C-alpha cells in the first residue's frame, strides 16, 4: 500500500506555493503522479475512513492537477472554477495534509468546474453540496491556499473527535 508519508504535511512551505499550469508535453509525467495520488487516496481512506481527492502539490508536484478517487480515479488538469453561487455552506473541512485537524469553513453551495481530462479533452461539470466544497478545497491547494487559511474565526479549529 502507498506510503502516506509521501503526503506533505501542514508546515511544509511547498503547500503554500502557487502551482503552474500543466503543459501537454508533461502529460505522461502527470499520469504517473496521478497514479501515485490515486493510490495515496485509497491508502488514506483505508487508514482514516475518509478521503476522496487530493491536489498535486500535496505530493510536492507543483502543477495544476487534482485527482479524485471515489468509484474510480479521475484526473482534473488545469481546472477553473466558475459560476460560484452566492449561497454559501458551512462545514468542518478536513485535509490529508493535516489528518487530525478539522477547520470550520464556508464554501459556495454550487459551482461549475472546467478542466482537461487524462486524454487532454475539455470537460465541465456542475457541482453541488459535498462535491462543490470538495473541489473548492482541492482547487485552493493549486493556489497554495489551505483550509486553515479559510477558517471562519479563531474558534474554527478542532482536533478530530473533539468537535465543539
Ligand atoms: Zn487538502
How does this structure look, described?
The protein is of the alpha+beta class and 164 residues long. 22% of the residues lie in helices and 30% in strands. It has a 5-stranded antiparallel sheet, with helices on both faces. It has a 3-stranded antiparallel sheet with strand order 4-5-8. The mean pLDDT is 97. The structure holds zinc ion (ZN).
Properties at a glance:
three-stranded antiparallel sheet; alpha+beta; 2 helices; 164 residues; 8 strands; binds zinc ion; five-stranded antiparallel sheet; Peptide Deformylase
Secondary structure topology:
Blueprint: H1 27-48, E1 53-55, E2 65-69, E3 73-82, E4 88-93, E5 101-108, E6 110-116, E7 122-128, H2 129-142, E8 157-159
Antiparallel strand pairs: 1-2, 2-3, 3-6, 4-5, 5-8, 6-7
The structure holds zinc ion.
Please provide a brief summary of the model.
The chain is of the alpha+beta class and 164 residues long.
Structural class: alpha+beta
Strand order of the largest sheet: 1-2-3-6-7
Looking at the overall shape, the CATH architecture is Alpha-Beta Complex
Total number of helical segments?
2
Largest sheet: 5 strands, antiparallel
Q: Which ions, cofactors or small ligands are bound in this entry?
A: zinc ion
Total DSSP E strands: 8
Shape: globular
N-to-C CA distance: 34 Å
CATH homologous superfamily assignment: Peptide deformylase
Number of domains: 1
CATH topology: Peptide Deformylase
Low-confidence stretches: none
- Evaluate the radius of gyration: 15 Å
Query: What proportion strand?
Result: 25-35%
Amino acid at each position: 500500500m502507498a506510503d502516506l508519508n509521501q503526503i506533505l504535511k501542514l508546515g511544509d512551505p511547498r503547500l503554500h506555493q502557487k502551482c503552474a499550469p500543466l503543459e501537454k508535453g508533461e502529460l505522461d509525467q502527470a499520469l504517473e503522479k496521478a497514479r501515485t495520488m490515486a493510490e495515496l487516496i485509497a491508502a488514506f481512506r483505508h487508514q482514516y475512513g475518509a478521503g476522496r481527492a487530493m491536489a498535486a502539490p500535496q505530493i510536492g508536484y507543483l502543477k495544476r492537477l487534482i485527482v479524485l478517487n471515489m468509484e474510480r480515479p479521475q484526473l482534473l488538469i488545469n481546472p477553473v472554477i466558475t459560476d460560484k453561487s452566492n449561497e454559501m455552506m458551512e462545514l468542518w473541512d478536513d485535509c490529508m495534509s493535516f489528518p487530525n485537524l478539522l477547520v470550520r469553513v464556508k464554501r459556495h453551495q454550487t459551482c461549475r468546474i472546467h478542466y482537461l481530462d487524462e486524454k487532454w479533452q475539455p470537460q465541465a461539470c456542475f457541482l453541488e453540496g459535498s462535491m462543490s466544497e470538495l473541489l473548492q478545497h482541492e482547487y485552493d491547494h493549486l493556489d497554495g491556499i489551505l483550509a486553515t487559511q479559510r477558517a471562519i474565526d479563531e474558534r474554527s479549529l478542532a482536533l478530530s473527535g473533539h468537535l465543539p
